[in-house]
Structure formats: structure tokens, C-alpha cells
Amino acid sequence: MWKQAASRKADSVNALIPHEWRIPSPPSNQEQVDITGSYVQQFLSAQEIEITEADAAFIAKKTASGEWTAVDVTKAFCHRAALAHQLLNCLHEIFFEDAIAHAQKLDEELASSKRPAGPLHGVPVSLKDQFHVRGVDTTMGYVGWIGTFQGEVGTGKDKVFESEMVRELRAAGAVLYCKTAVPHTLMSGETINNIIGYVWNPKNRNLSAGGSSGGEGALIGLKGSPLGFGTDIGGSIRIPSAFCGVFGIRPSAGRLPYEGMANSMDGQNSILSVVGPLASSVQSLRLAVQAILAQQPWLHDPLVLELPWRSKEEQLILDAAKGATGRLAFGVFTYDEVVAIHPPVARAVDIVVKTVEKLGHELVQWKPPSHDRIFQIGLKTWFYDSGADVQKAFELSGEPQASQVSSLYGAKGRPMDAVQIAENNVLKREIQKEYMDYWNSTQDQTGTGRPVDAIIAPCAPFAAARPNGYTYVGYTLFVNVLDYTSVVIPVTQVDKSIDKALDNFQPISELDKATQATYDPDIYDGAHVSVQLVGRRLQEEKMLAIAELLSDALAKT
Amino acid sequence: MWKQAASRKADSVNALIPHEWRIPSPPSNQEQVDITGSYVQQFLSAQEIEITEADAAFIAKKTASGEWTAVDVTKAFCHRAALAHQLLNCLHEIFFEDAIAHAQKLDEELASSKRPAGPLHGVPVSLKDQFHVRGVDTTMGYVGWIGTFQGEVGTGKDKVFESEMVRELRAAGAVLYCKTAVPHTLMSGETINNIIGYVWNPKNRNLSAGGSSGGEGALIGLKGSPLGFGTDIGGSIRIPSAFCGVFGIRPSAGRLPYEGMANSMDGQNSILSVVGPLASSVQSLRLAVQAILAQQPWLHDPLVLELPWRSKEEQLILDAAKGATGRLAFGVFTYDEVVAIHPPVARAVDIVVKTVEKLGHELVQWKPPSHDRIFQIGLKTWFYDSGADVQKAFELSGEPQASQVSSLYGAKGRPMDAVQIAENNVLKREIQKEYMDYWNSTQDQTGTGRPVDAIIAPCAPFAAARPNGYTYVGYTLFVNVLDYTSVVIPVTQVDKSIDKALDNFQPISELDKATQATYDPDIYDGAHVSVQLVGRRLQEEKMLAIAELLSDALAKT
Questions:
Q1: Which end of chain B is more exposed for a tag (fewer CB within 10 A), N or C?
Q2: What ranges in B403-443 are assigned the alpha helix state H?
């Protein structure tokens, strides 16, 4: 039964791809490992390529001036998104027609008013399938949620209710056109579910696109979207960004509005999932954050803080970039003392370190409080209800859990009680304080008069996970426990001629051994390798400025 | 056993009051109902009266300029605090000698450097007995905590560890000299425990000083402190402020640092207890908040938000006060549809309403989402652990719970589980959103172009509770559930010739009946009556400005 429902749903979405955009016989992953660049360009017109290979910040200028019509832009991205889906399984919902109609309206209004609708006028924006958008389902990958509102029937909300940020994006002039794939439960670093299957990495289809915002990563990685929104409770924005070679920011909780979105384990409030943008440039991330903050989300989401965009927080960094003021200082680490990273990830961190040195900034070896302790505290929050919430969602249809998820939530158990939860909350606050004190203490090691400005760190032990190979999430989860701001930037690609497997690796645990064992230069060759830049809590302006500074410098090396 | 430990502790604190400050035979409550004004002044010198009847903002100017020495100021408040304790039982810890030594040092440093130590240079500050201050106990009213660190023996922290805000207050130049009484558990609107007994209201010793920051209310109400800090999870700053005729602010969570304070049910994070000042003027509250924010508490407490003092948030209000810009708009309600208020409280709200009208501002009848629903959600958070945490504290000594507390935590039960807690968290967020939408909707009812700027509301059904008469906390708890900013301002006093009991009151419930039945004009005569001014989340600057505007206007009526 669930199989039929799942394929009916998948078919109905595929049917929304116009015939002229279909790939007659898509190559297998083995036949065409890398589908970016010239491969995907063969299906597109020169104009479509020009449009889709621009970033959101550039597009916004073109559409606001009327130089590019919103319709042309929207059509181009719809086309490329359709190609991405056929090659990567990255979409849950398609509403190209609505999008083109909306774009048409924007063009008309611009023509008559001469004023763009907002800072995202005519910019296509893709959304992870947790956002409710009128006219389409929100399945979050659950077969049992098809045709319902978050699994409930008869609420009157399905296909009508919209998430707060959807309203704000429309108000900013954005064109919404598709919703992207997630792993059912959202609690995986790979994206897989029983409706669309497995989401592949566009740069290397031996590998995962990451998760849980894996559809976003894949889609933006193939330039089928210039800007999308994902969510992150343990790395779910940063992992797909890193794997797919795009930029992504995990803001601190309370910066951007989560109001009215579907979620797993809603009401767990020790570590809140946060929403944030992924895009093909830092400038586009900034545009997105600024556009949302301009809507004063704190008046519409009770969990959002009244923090408008703070230009002066960027200034220190912008001044440093121009050499106008003193240096910046960075902490750096490549090993969290739990799981060792693969050679290409170590090389990526090294490239960033050398870039920082070349720019004349300072580096401090990061020796923080135990990341293992942080990891254990964070992981515990995922099991407060012992899986009761997600198990209920699976039971609606009887569908099985993917192995990536059943290893977490396959067995039923007793939920934790208030005493256990309170205890974990106290441990969390204590380690946050300890980490904060450590961060402050680096003031004595820098010559800047300040503690380090940001940490350079791996996003994961691997450039990207191999299928069923997401062994360890500690490199991203620590940021969620600490509620820090983190921006992912692409650095390099795996080069099998340089990035040899380690000869005599000495694992400290089975997990460490299993993780290192997944590295194979032939499999990984060409994959994106990224790092994350971690800042203190609510430092979105500063961290975007630092990310721009470093990615500009990396582009020049 | 516990009785001996309790009286030994009480005696040891009383022994710290110098002989010359002792009241030979203090009158009974009946003999001397009101101990403020001329009654307490008889024990003080003219200089001591001048100093102690100044507010913290004024004192700070005098001590910063050296016109008043910190030693004179400190001694005067120590003396008046000692009197307050003998008449009201408001102190848990006395460290006058340390304070005077600190003041001496401040005087010397000022003399040599010509620069005050900080914005609170030489200002005596009293602290609720949740703050850890070196050299003295933190008992929080538990006999079992005497001589321990939060009930634990052998941590090495007792009498050594200090709370983050203690460090910040010292850095701002404040002189700490005493810690004030709380009800054991902190979960009561009256202050009582087995060490110091019952804390009485200085203006009317038939009545409670309120709770849980009841020692602060009593002490500041008698001008034994110009500025103190309490905490509030359901009204615990606002209730004693209101009852004792002082000003108090309940900031939103994350504005001021709670790091390193003792607490009940630590780790319950659906509704966080917040810390905030009580003082004899709005200007003093502002000075206190500004002084703490100037210490950048967000770098030392992981739960504090990076929100420096925002002067422009005050500007709208200051401009309106000067008549420079448009009007303000206020919502007003006197009945939450659960429990009716006593006649004097209704009259106090009416006085404020008339003042607002006289100033030319607008009024909107406040018809919000169900306060009963909000109350139920809030109350539930107090019972997540079914009392396990506070019961453990009582068991350390075997002492009994006061009836004000045993009605809540007397019986043992099972803690709630993660599923129940998550459900309550979702309900809380939903009502926060609903309330926010309602608040936004008042834009259509005001002529200001904005939703209402603040709500004028009762703080409690009564001017102050009679002993064992704190029947209902809904008028304050709704603010904690919504995480709003609220400032209490004194308005008037009960006048038995005006404030008659209601003739034909029709209660809607037993609770409503019991609450109204506690009103007796003869008992209440002379008591302070206050209101709270409730603003949206994190509106501390704006709400203090509004409180100043209205209290200035009230003073002129």
C-alpha cells in the first residue's frame, strides 16, 4: 500500500515537468559521475546558462532594474531544477506554473510602478520541504503525510496554510517554485525517503548530497536554484552546503523565523532547529538574511529576536579586509579527538590556513573543552522522546525507515522524564559557559586585543558521505549545542593524485576506523571539499563578512 | 534537629547587627502597622535619612563626585537594612563589615584616581538569596542548604564561588552588603521559610511583602536598600515591587545574566526565571540595567543576548513625553476572566487610565486570547518534575514545607515525560503567536499608526496578599509565558473610606470567591497599590521610558 502511495506521489510530481525539459535517457551515476558544468549545460540555452550561473545577488540587480525579466529568470531556473531532479532526485514539490504566473505579475508591476517588489524581486527561491506553501503538500518525506497537514486529516490547513517565512519571502519579492527533498525524520546527514529515493551529489554521483537539507544542496550545487532555505539542528544546512560546494549559514536560534514550519519532535526545546539560507555566493546569503530581517520577523514569530541587520558588526571585518585596521585572529582545529578527518578535508583546512596567513591574519591552535562531551549532550536531545514522534509518522503508512534513520529510531523505548531532560539542559549550559570562557581566554594568545574572531573547522570527517556512510555528526553538532553562527565555504575539490588514503592510520575507536575506511581516492575524486567558519552566538553579520573575505581570497589563490 | 539548625542560622545573622542598631523592644505588627516614614526615621540620624531616602540614581551622582562618601552611604543603608530586618525579617545574610571595607576602598581609589569605579560607584546593592557572594551562605531559605553549596557538601564552592552578576556589579562599582529573604522553593507570592519566618510588608504589617523576591520588596520598601536584584518566573520581581510600593522590572529572558545563580528546578527551560532590578525610582532601574549591559554580559553568560542598551528605543517615548511627536497608545484590562481584582486595584488602574487620558494618549480595551489558557500552560511548567527538585532540598534537613508551598509540592508524583513537555512547549509557542497577532491587530484600533505601545494591567488581584492568601498568580504569570517586558509602578494607597468591599460580588468560581473574600478595607488601609506596564518581548528601554513618563505624571496628580 505505502509503495503505491509513494510512487503515485513521485509520479505526480514528475508529471509536472514539461516534456521539453525531460532528459530522454538519463545516464547512470557510473556513466556520468559529475553532472555539473558542461554536462548539464548541454540541455540549456545560452540565456538559460547565463541566468542560472549568476548568483542571487546579481540576479536581484538585473530583475530589479528590469534588465532581466522575472519570467525569463524563473523559467530558466525551473528548467535547470527539472534537470537536477531527473538526475539527482532532489525535489519533493514542483509548482513551476504558479511561479511563472507570479513572475509575470512582478514584471507587470515593475513595468507600471517602476519599483521592485522588494530586495528579492523576481529571485527564484527554493524551500526545503518543511515550509508550508499553498497549493502543494508538505510530506517531509513521509508517505503517511501525503495529502494531509503534517499527518493530520481534516484540519483544513493542507495546501492552504503557509509558513511565516513564506509570507515574508513573497513580501520581499521572491518567486517560489519548488520544495526540496529531505530524509524522512530530518535526522540524517544523507537524504533518502520512500517517495523520491536517494539524493545524489551533483559534483560526484558516487556520493551523498548530504542532509537533511540535501535537496537544497543538490539543487543549488547544480545551479538549479540561486537561493534556498534549509534548516539545521545538527548540521542540516552546513552538511549539504559543504558536500555540494555551495555557501550556507547556520544562524543562531532566534535570528530567522521558523514559525509555522513542519518539523520533527516539535517542542523539544533544548536545541532548536534553525532556518537559514544556502546559495552560490556569500553575497546571496547576506541578501537573503537582510531581506528577511527587513520584514521585522520578530513581530510575527514569537521566538525571533528583535535584531535588525547590524552593519557595524560587519565593519571591523570589512576594514580588516581593506587592511585599514588591525588583523583578525582565527582559531583552527582539524581533529575533535573523537573521529579523524579524511585527507582531502585536512588539505582544505590547510588551504584556508595558508590563505589566512597570506592575508596577514593570526592563527591560534584551538584547544577547546571536550567536543565529545558536547556531542553526547547534543545527541541526547535527539532521543528525549525515544523516537515517539517520528515513529508515529512512519506508522501512518506502515512504510519502513531507511537504514540511515532506523539506526537511530528503529527501536521503541521510553521517553526521558523531566528530571533527565533538566539535567541535560544544565550540562548543556555548563559546557556553553566553559566554551565561552575558553573563547574569551584566547585574547591572551592573539595580538589583536580580542579573542579569536572565528574558528576554521571541518564540517564533517569526509568531503561528502558515501551512501549509508554518515558515521559521525560531531563536527557540525557542536555548533548547535553552543548555538554559534557558522558559515560554510567551498575550498577545493578532491584530487586523487594528491589526496591519498592514509597509509598507517591508527584509529582510536571502531567509529574512527569505520569512518576513515570510507575514504577512497577513486570514489571521491572531484568532490567538493569545504570548511566551516564558526563564530560566536548571533554573529551573522560578522561571520558573513569573514566568509566573504576568505572566499574572495581563496578565489584568487 | 532542623529547628536548631534554623535558629542557629537566624541567630548568627542577627548577631551581625551592631548593638547600637538594635531596636530594644520592637513593636508588634498590631502595635505598629506601618513602619515606614516617621516610624523608622526615629532610629536614624538626619544624614542617614537624607542618604537613604535618595534613590540610587541620585546616590550614584553624589558618590561619583565624592560629595557623599561611599562609606557614609553604605553605613546609612546598613543601618536602615538592620532596622528593616528587625521589623520585617527581610534578610538572609548580612555582610556589613565587608561592605564598609569595600566602600572605604572605593573612596580611596576615587580620591587618588579622581575617577569613579563605574556607573554604580559606591551604590549599595542588595541581592536576593539566589546570588552566590563569597564569604556567606546561599540558603535560598532551606535549612538543609546552610553551610553547603546548593545543598551539596564538599564542592569547595561554598562561600567562594560567585555568580556572574556579582562580578559585574562589583566591576560597576556597587557595594554589596546583604542578601534578602525568599520563600523556600522560590515558588510563592509570599515570603516564608523555616529560618527567618515570614516577611512582612513595611507599609502595612497585616500584609505580605510578596514573593519570591519578598526580602527585596520589604527592604527597598523601607528604604533599607536603594537598589536590589530579584528574579521572576511567575511574578517574583513584580509581586513584591507592587506590594511594597517600589519599582521593578521583569526583563525578557536573555537580557540580564542569570549565570551561576542558585535556582529551583534548574534545567526547566520552557519558561526561564529572569533576573532584574527593584528600586525606589525608574531612573534607578535604568541605571542598573545600563550598568550591567555595559559589562557585556553576553560574553560571560551563554544565555544572554548581545543587546547593548538601545537609546533609540527610548526616543519615541521621550519624544512623546515632550509632546514632540504623536501620541502613545495603551491597552488596558482589569479582569482576566479568571479571578476578579479587589476594589483598590481597580481604582489604581483607573487612576493610571485617567492619567493617560489627561496626557492625551490613547486607550484601547484589551481583549486578548484566553489568559486562562496561558495560565494553565505556565503553571504546568512548574510541575514538570512533580516537585522532585524542591522535595530533595527539604529532605536534606527534614524540615516541613510552609503551607504556601506544600499546596504545590507537598505530594510526590511522577515527573512528566518528554512527550508531555514537548506538547506544552508547542502550546506555549502557539499562544505566544496568537497573542502576538492580537497585539499586532490593535494597530487598527489606535490612531498612532502602531499597535498599542504597552498594556496597563493589575499585578495581582489584591494590593498585597494577606498571610496564606496568595490565591492566584495569573496576573503576573501570563507575562512570563509570553516572555514580555513588564515594569511595576506604585500608583496609590488603599483608603478604607473610598475602597469599600464589593456589595454584591458574583464570583464565577470558588477561587474567585475566596480571592475576593480576602479584601477587608480595615486590614488593607494604607497599603500600596501598584500596576504593571507590560510591553512586548525585549522592550526594556521602551518600557522603562513609559514607566518614567507615567510615574512622573502620576506624581503630579
A1: N
A2: 403-409, 418-441
